[in-house]
Amino acid sequence: MSLGDKLAKLRKDNNYTQEQLADILGVSRQAVSRWESDLAYPETDKLIKLGELYDCSMDYLLKDKVDEKTQQDQLGIRSPFTDFHYERKSARTVRGVPLWHINIGFGKTAKGIIAIGFCARGLISVGFFSLGLLSFGLLSLGLLSFGVFALGFISAGAISAGVIALGAVCLGALAIGATAIGEFSVGALAVGKYFAIGDHAYAAIAIGKTKAVGSIFCASEVTALNRAEIIALLKSNVPRIFYWAIEMIKPFL
After folding, report:
1. Angle at 50 between CA 46 and CA 55, to 5 degrees
2. Is 230 helix (H, G, I), strand (E, B) or coil?
3. Spatial CA neighbour of 200 closest among 183, 217, 179, 182
């Protein structure tokens, strides 16, 4: 198989058009066409970029006797799990980024406005490891993040951290979960700097059914008589930057 044949096959296997590949490499579409027709050869720096893009070795690209199986073997131990690979992407792009990209396979990364894969990066991303504005995954990072382990402005997961965090174990300015730690905490075990409410509560203002420890105020429950006092104490002891959190915890009072 010639270099041009390999380049054409790799491009098609990775669902790139000649125009898309040309944009990525900073060359003309005609240059890509000439490479694939064996009428010209890519410069060394372009070959290196192609190898990185297609995750293949220079030996595979340049040596006629290195077949596809050998190329795959060079990447590590073969197994049904590591061999599986499914990839599709939209022809439509936004500034060179596919509108959607599905890239499922061990060690593969999906990159698109909408990205789905083992590793995913996009405005909306879904994957075992995901990064995006809206992120879903085993380990997720994003403005809105949902996963077993979640980190984001608003995060929800078994273990989560964020400005607003929800989960079994959570850490945030406002934390709501079984075990909650934050400036304001709601949970079975709630530990807060300013406010905590739960079965066991520890904070400046603490409401705990079983145990409440508070340096300013503590009670076993919220009643019609003490609710107004609790809100007044919060507003007089909490920095104004956290007034949004006071509004959000009012349903728990």
Report:
1. 150
2. helix
3. 179
- Cα dihedral 146/152/156/160 (nearest 10): 120
Q: Is the pTM of this model over 0.85?
A: no
Helix extents (H) in 75-225: 80-83
**Which amino acid is residue 75, in one-letter code?**
L
| Cα(133)–Cα(144) distance, integer angstroms | 6
Q: What is the pLDDT of residues 234-252, one digit of tens each?
A: 999 999 999 999 999 999 9
Q: Angle at Cα 56 formed by Cα 52 and Cα 61, nearest 5°?
A: 110
* Tokens representing residue 213 in the block: 């420890």
The torsion defined by the Cα of 85, 90, 91 and 92, in degrees rounded to 10, comes to -150
Angle at 209 between CA 205 and CA 215, to 5 degrees: 25
- Range from 46-55, 72-81, 155-164 carrying the lowest mean pLDDT: 72-81
Alpha helices by DSSP H, listed for the chain, are 3-13, 18-25, 29-36, 44-54, 58-62, 68-74, 80-83, 227-237, 243-249
Tokens 């060394």, residue located: 44
Q: Which residues are CB-contacts of 44 (< 8 A; sequence separation ≥ 6)?
A: none
